[in-house]
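call fold target=APC family permease
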Amino acid sequence: MPRSLKRTVSTPLLYFFILGDVLGAGVYVLVGSVAEASGGAVWLPLAVALGLATLTAASYAELATKYPRAGGSAHYATRALGPAAGSLVGFCMLAAGVVSVGALARAFAGDYLQALVSAPTAVVIIVFLVALALLNIRGIKESLTANVAASLIELGGLVLIIGLGAWLLLRGDADPGRLTDIGTPQHGPVLAVLAGTVLAFYSFVGFETSVNLAEEVRDPRRSYPAALFGALLTAGVVYVSVGVVAAAAVPTDELARSSGPLLEVVRRAGGVPERLFSVIALVAVANGALLTGIMASRLAYGMARDGLLPAVLTRLLPGRRTPWVAVVVTTSVSIALALTGEVAVLAETLVLLLLVVFTAVNCSVLLERRHPVDTDHFRAPTVVPWLALASCLYLFTRIEAAIWARGLILVGLGVGLAVVNTLRSRRSADRQSHDRSRGADVLDPS
């Protein structure tokens, strides 16, 4: 049975994977939250968040091109910090991915779908996630080809918003003066921008999932940096542009109150059916669930191959060479989470879990520089991972105590897995040492 994944992912497919995962469904509600936190200058926190995300992305680019393996963050932490850290990081990534897929499935079955057709929530969740799992099992190339189409629809919806906002500006129905309005009644300009940046940073996460595809990329050392930074730049330009037009077109208070801030732009511009955005949002949610499901299954496969999870998760489908057992297991857990209806509470901990991962990855890239490899790979300037590490530590301080309380439960489970794996590794090492000692005694009975 083959023990490696099939290299079929080209640079364009990888670019659209990252772009689709970064754009995601969150952008359709993000602008209002940032406006509430920072004021009318929504574009500024988005631009700052892009810079912070790019710092950590550089660490991922270095490690993914140095060690192109499916385990991603968990593999890097294992190499640099040991199996216990690898277990913890892998579990945090896996937990974030599985919960995210469940939350997205719940969102898919919610108001956006109900605006178009009435269907039982449980049935929609099961059919939706089973369909995505079958697409994932069929093959990474097919999954990413579907992602290209979905990403283009997501991107097209956001470009439409930019166009409508520009039209409002041209006809004099928008107020460009709001673009320099920084600060809120609660916070001055600096604290307001920082508060908005924390929220905006959430919108750029997703790029980290792509490292789990490194083993399936045809030429990861050349393709990965180009696809990663290209996708982040594209997403950043789109986000900042959306922030500009939305803030100019809609009064800040109204934007902050709306649960669908981009629909406010559509209503003010006119000429575009509002139902269109229900369809676009559904595509965005489905695409996010597909990409996150791919990440979770590849991460589970990579961790199992490193001995951090049960070996059954390494089984590949003959011919397709996709990790079908990992897909089935991660999808089953996501279905269970989605059906319980408790994913909204757990979803708030995703950023905390990812900051644990980002901190470990930024430490790993610095520690692994003590171990050069023979092949060429991307190398970030030394100051970049240090700045990325500092940004993660700062963002930790901006997380509310209630989210810490919830997140520490999941982190505690990860620590438990790390302890079990460490004890198992020590027992295995002790057995090997004992066997070697017995072998020496047999060879030298004196």
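return ok
The two ends are 45 Å apart (CA to CA). The mean pLDDT is 83.
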